[in-house]
Structures are given as structure tokens and as C-alpha cells.
């Protein structure tokens, strides 16, 4: 793992007992994120909440982190991330937060230290936008949004 990117993680005060993000298996893509809330948080059907994780990051400029849902919570309870995938910019130094929404039919209670989402790091290519007055032709052209049919 010597070629691994180094990402700095800083626990924010009051979260000493909250586990740092963790891969639950060796080759998992995502680090599971734990809810750093004081009291249990009830999400009624349709409710959303910004849930703190208790840490902040500093990562190399070539990376971003994506906050993605956990499929088990989505399947069993309709709990997902509203802005999926959430984007953590390399220059963001605030607390990483998870925007949860309850798409289920029952209230869902988030407990302190519950694993609520996962964080996947991605390479972000360096891009320079170049303004032009015309674009090259392609077979697809401007076709989209199901123009080849949906069945
Ligand atoms: O799920 C998320 C999404 C974002 N953020 C933080 C990190 C990110 O770098 C910052 C800004 O996010 P984004 O660019 O998506 O928000 P915006 O609505 O465009 O706000 P801003 O004007 O602050 O960029 O908020 C989170 O902690 N969790």
C-alpha cells in the first residue's frame, strides 16, 4: 500500500468515541461513515437531515470524496442520501456531513455511531474548458433522453 494516496483526517472535538471511517472488508470501495449525533435522530417519512460525522479531511488536489448511500439502509428502510453522490471537495476543511432522506413509509431513528453512508474517494482529472463556436459531428448528434427508444 506504499503507493496509496495519503488523506489526512482530523477528529473534531467531542467525537473521541466515534469510530473513524472504516472499510468493512479489505477491498471495499467505500469507508463507512458513523453518525456523530448526541441524541437519536428521528426521520419521519419524507424528512431529511444533515448528519454530522465528527471529522474533517485534507486530501490531495487530484481527489474528491463521494458520499454514497448504504444499499442495506436504502433497501430495508428507504434511507438514502438526497444529494447522491455528495461531493467533498479537496479544499473543504469543514466537517463532513451526510444529507440523509427517508424515502420509506415508516419513521427511521438514526442512532449515535450508526453507519449511515459510505465515502468513496475518486480521482478528478484536471480539466480546462475551452470555448468554441461549433462542435464536431457525431452519429448521436443532439439525440438523447431516450431517442433510441426505451423498450
Ligand atoms: O454530502 C455532502 C456534500 C457536501 N459537503 C460539503 C463538502 C463540500 O466540499 C461542500 C460543498 O458542497 P457542494 O459543492 O455540493 O455544495 P454547494 O451547494 O455547491 O455549496 P458551496 O457553494 O459551498 O460549494 O459541502 C458535505 O459535507 N457533504
From TrEMBL:
Substrate binds at residues 70-72, 83, 87-89. It holds the Pfam family dUTPase. The keyword Magnesium applies. Pathway: Pyrimidine metabolism; dUMP biosynthesis; dUMP from dCTP (dUTP route): step 2/2. Residues 17-149 form the dUTPase-like domain. Keywords: Hydrolase, Magnesium, Metal-binding, Nucleotide metabolism. One of its GO terms (biological process) is dUMP biosynthetic process. It catalyses: dUTP + H2O = dUMP + diphosphate + H(+). GO terms for molecular function: dUTP diphosphatase activity; magnesium ion binding. Its cofactor is Mg(2+). Belongs to the dUTPase family. This enzyme is involved in nucleotide metabolism: it produces dUMP, the immediate precursor of thymidine nucleotides and it decreases the intracellular concentration of dUTP so that uracil cannot be incorporated into DNA. This is Deoxyuridine 5'-triphosphate nucleotidohydrolase.
Amino acid at each position: 500500500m506504499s503507493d496509496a494516496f495519503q488523506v489526512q483526517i482530523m477528529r473534531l472535538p467531542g467525537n473521541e468515541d466515534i469510530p473513524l471511517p472504516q472499510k468493512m472488508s479489505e477491498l471495499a470501495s467505500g469507508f463507512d461513515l458513523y453518525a456523530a449525533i448526541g441524541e437519536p435522530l428521528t426521520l419521519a417519512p419524507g424528512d431529511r437531515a444533515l448528519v454530522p460525522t465528527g471529522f474533517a479531511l485534507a486530501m490531495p488536489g487530484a481527489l474528491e470524496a463521494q458520499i454514497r448511500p448504504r444499499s442495506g439502509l436504502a433497501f430495508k428502510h428507504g434511507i438514502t442520501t438526497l444529494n447522491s453522490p455528495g461531493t467533498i471537495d479537496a479544499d473543504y476543511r469543514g466537517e463532513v456531513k451526510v444529507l440523509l432522506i427517508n424515502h420509506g413509509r415508516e419513521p427511521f431513528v438514526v442512532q449515535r455511531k450508526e453507519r449511515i453512508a459510505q465515502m468513496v474517494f475518486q480521482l478528478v482529472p484536471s480539466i480546462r474548458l475551452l470555448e468554441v463556436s461549433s462542435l464536431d459531428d457525431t452519429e448521436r448528434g443532439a439525440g438523447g433522453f431516450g431517442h433510441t427508444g426505451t423498450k
